[in-house]
Amino acid sequence: MNRKRRFPTDLYNRLEERLRNKLKNNNSDTAKDAIGEDLIKCPKCGKMVERAHVVKRKYVCYECGGYFRVRTKNRIRMVADFKTFEPWFEDMEVSNPLDFEGYEEKLAAAREKTGLNEAVTVGRCKVFGDDIVLGVCDSRFMMSSMGHVVGEKITMAIERATELRLPVFLFCCSGGARMQEGIISLMQMAKTSAAIKKHGDAGLLYCSILTDPTTGGVTASFAMLGDVIMAEPGALIGFAGPRVIRQTIGQELPEGFQTAEFLVEHGFVDGIVERERLKKTIHFLITAHQGVGKKTYNNFGEEKDFKFELSESLKEQSWNAEQFTAWEKVKAVRQLDRPSAMDYMDSIFDVFVEAHGDRGFGDDKALVGGIAFIGMQPVTVIADLKGNSLEECQQRNFGMPLPEGYRKALRLMKQAEKFNRPIISFVNTSGAFCGIEAEERGQGEAIARNLLEMSGLKVPVLCILIGEGGSGGAIATAVGNEVWMMENATYSILSPEGFASILWRDAGRAQEASEVMNITAQDLKRLGVIERIVPEFGGAGAETSEAIAGYMKKHIMEFLEKYNGMSGEEIAAERYARYRVF
Predict the structure, then answer these.
(1) 0.85 exceeded by the pTM?
(2) What residues pair up with 237 in beta bridges, in sequence order?
(3) Hey, is 137 helix, strand or coil?
């Protein structure tokens, strides 16, 4: 176990005093350099901590978990394979476009202090053997503000990445636009964004990693345009920083308002990435986004030999769906202990990494999505989640998505189309949420947009109803090339209670309504609404969930195999024809 070195009180006080003197004329809130050879001050908790121990933890405080800002060379060391980084565009000419007084001297001082030519370093490297283009912003160089050289280096790096067909990973850090360059700095926002558009149009991956701080024109351009946007824990992220807001309009921001965690909660960032997992996360993203131009969907690796086998006890369980009435099935799928999509996904997929947010309002916990793998085959997964306890049900709004949930799903499905990943959607919702906030944020438009876009997706889409399938809230993520239902699941125009209330003005006749609505898997198979009934081996529960998942996995792999070699247009045309017959 590591032991903290203990220092006499008078030495500790002298080190603290030396730190105060060193930072007295410094406007930055971070401890920029070491105090002596052994100690540095944590920028979060303010404690003096051992330098060597912090470095070993990838510049993370062992007292509070706070993140230190990282120099360019150290960031590259964290990410790139040993000695593979090849810097690009290091000798770009620097100018003073507005003839701003003292600007050249300030640039010269920053170069001398940091050993960098500018605030961003770009180049090519390998991550676990895969080639990427890497960019790193360094706050020590004029707070990594964006001048014309910064914009040009990023643009040229993305252009070269497009030519070489390489993914781009950019570590963002900035105080915003460079004031000394005025309107020329503003133009870099448009220029870098245009380069990212061309890179994306080529079907290539662009990821941004937001570090502390990321503000101003950088936030309003290349930092927030990633196919995947990650952020380091606790990073300050915002368009206008707290000081600017306070001094311009007099507002004081609440605690934690512009943190990375706040942005995840409000839907703007896919997730938080810790430094110890950073390189592996980048490798995962490279692997998950290599499907551009490929029309194969069976890269299962060793999973090709997967066999679905039942235990002797389950073999004895016959399909008994006909033994239950429609109303009994309605009640069964509403039970808290019925397995959720996550229960099945744990057995079907080798790994699942959740992505968060609709990039516009929030991260709806009633509808989750992300990237999963079956063997080496990446897929995008969308799933309604109700919760398995009262507390979780409340957190997930009882599985009733809001508009931001459907927009998150659509964002992830369009991303899947771009990178040629098949889509697996698990449906289990009593319906879309019908409250004031849902109407204010455009519930109807969000569902309609999903139906429109899903109809034309150029990748295979499989939808599996595992519980309730309620009305427009269900079909919003259930427009597939095939639709399956578990044998005791239900799928209906609305709840039996709602049906009875509308037709007979008596919600108390819900049981009677359920028997005439044709809502069971058997009814819908007969009507041609679904292609497959998934057995429950006596009823979905803790004892049967693994067997049910095994059945699903076997047939999901067969479903994907069927689309090998088909063009995106053929896949979309098949889906159109499926719905055209109704």
Answers:
(1) yes
(2) 214
(3) strand
